[in-house]
Structure formats: C-alpha cells, structure tokens
Design brief:
Number of strands: 8
Helix content: 40-55%
Shape: globular
Strand order of the largest sheet: 1-8-5-4-2-3
Radius of gyration: 20 Å
Length: about 375
Amino acid sequence: MNNFTYSVPTVIHFGKGQISHLSELKESRSRVLMVYGGGSIKKNGIYDAAMKYMGDAGLEVFELGGVTPNPRVQLVRKGIEICKKNSVDMLLAVGGGSSIDCAKLIAAGVVYGGDPWDLMLDSSLIKGALPIYCVLTLAATGSEMDNSTVISDPTINSKMDICSDYIKPKMAILDPEYTFTVSKKQTAAGAVDIMSHIFESYFTNVEGTNLQRHISEALLKTVIEYAPIALETPDNYDARANLMWCSSLALNGLLSYGAEVSWCVHPIEHELSAYYDITHGIGLAILTPVWMEYVLNEKSVSQFADYGRNVWNIIEDDNIKAATAAIDKTKTFFSSLGMPSKLSEIGIDSTHFEEMAADCVRFCEGCYMPLTKEDIVNIYNKAL
C-alpha cells in the first residue's frame, strides 16, 4: 500500500429534512451564489426550501441557472462575473454533479482572477477558492465529497477534469428523498457512474490494498442490489439512500488513497462527451465492458476473476472462465438498467476516433493496464 494523507473536510448532513442546515451558512459569509440546472428544483420544492432557510438566515442570494449535464466553461465565466460584480463570498450548488462541478470552478476562478479554463489546463494555478456548499439531488458523480471538477468547452471539443483540495465542499446535504423524482434514465446512468468510479480504484496494480478492494466490492454489491429497486420503485427510500451514500464513498478517497492508479475508462469516455455531448453514464456503460475484455490477459485475469467471485458470486475455479463470466455479468447488468451497449445505438461512428484517442492517451499511460493511442482506437471500434 502506498503512503497517503487522508483528509475529507466535507461535513455531511444525511437524511430527511437536512436542508434546514442551510441556515448555518450565515456563520460563514453573507452573500451566496446559488448554482443549479434546468429548473427541476423549482418544480419539486427544493428551490423553495433552500430559499426559505437562506432567507431566514438573512443571506443575500444570487442565482445562476442553466447548468447542463456536461457543464460548460462559458457558464462558469458568467458565474464568476456575477460573483465579482456582487461581492459574492460563497457558492451553493443545488443539483447533481454538474451543478457542483460548475460551482467548484467558479469558486476557484473568482480567487484566480484570470480565465477559468487556465485552471483546467493547469490545476496548480488554483491557490484558493470561495467556500462551496451543496444540496445533492442525484446519486452519481461523488462531486459532493471530493476534490475534483469536470468542465467542458464545446467550442474546442474538450472535456477536462482536475483535482485540487481547495475545491472540496465545506458541507453537503444528502436527502435521499430529493432523488425520488430523478428519471429512470438518469438513475441508471448514475448507478453506472458510481460503479465506474469504484472500478477505477478497484483495478489497481498497487500491492497490499486488500482493504480498499473489499470495501469496493461491498459498494459494488450495494449498487447492484439497489439500482434495480430504485428503477422499479422510485420512492423507495432505502434504495435511494444506499445509492446516494455509495456515490459519495466511491469518490471521496476512501477507495483510492494508498491504491493510487491513473483512471482508464473515464478519460476515454470524456472524449465521447466532449465531441457528442452524451450522458456520461451512458458512455461509461458502453465502454466499461469493452475495456474489461480488452485488458483481460495473464496479468489481469486473477483480479477480474476475484471480481467475479466476490461481487457476482460466480463459482468457478478456472480464472479465465470466472473473469469472462464477470465481464458478461457486468454487461448484462448495464443492459438490464436500460443502458445501450454499443456506440452505434446512440449515433456515434468512427469519424473522430483517431483525434479523440490522441487527445486522451496521455491520461492512460499510467493506468491499471497502460493504453496506447492504438489501443484506445481499438476500444472505440470494438464498442461500435
């Protein structure tokens, strides 16, 4: 196991009615920019509840709506302008990972002073950020409890992710009831995203990380158990609660610290999202089983076999058979959630594969099974 320093400063308020903790923001600052998406929070009552508690606390609230599933740097720039013009001193993201990611870069961009895309190209330029708080409405990205943000610039077909401890949220409110109205498509895509985050740490070549692997297996089994229930019965509190907490634990460092390895599938999928603006979880559902099949070899077979036996309860002594069955189970599970299994199903062809692979290959050199540009092109083609 590698050396590490573990710090998760995010205060989590989990459960029903926890949005009342927004009144505590008055103890920090007085002017808040609330960042949210397409307006669903105004239909389901979350917006009104947030405004009530912040109003009761005497906070002055400014708003930035319209965050898209792949948040754009153009909206980040607009948020920074609002903050500077009105001397905003904290950010509140209400929504899923996209709203939180947008708020994170705004918070860092206000302190930075230059163009926020500079920070996406070089995260070492982040020297501080306004305090970030969030109310989570979708179990998927884990952004409510981690130090990363993912932002796109569609004008150059680029989607980037960066990490900085300065952008870890100070507080996150996780009320599973706020996910009851999430669509089946987004619930399924969120479950895939959670599983993919776990896979990125689970398949590591760092030795002596059995604890992280066993925790990962427990989280994977939990998603496999509860995602179908949430799809069938959207207001099942326990199903939504388990998925929501899995989302946070999958990406708050619990699984990765001490077992660090560069991510494999996410950078490959980010290219799909950058070029085609698809839902992130859908891209991951298509690419993950293909990646698993592609990197299955003599070095990796024992880990994939363990995955099959410990997560899918596959009884098979032969490693290659157990590993192959595990990959098939993964593919079948994603399909059972209503996820497509081929890029052609969502209108993507091979037109941009070469340039997409060239853009992301630098992120895949240190991953579990290092990938070349040719490897990435092959994965895209096998996913057609």
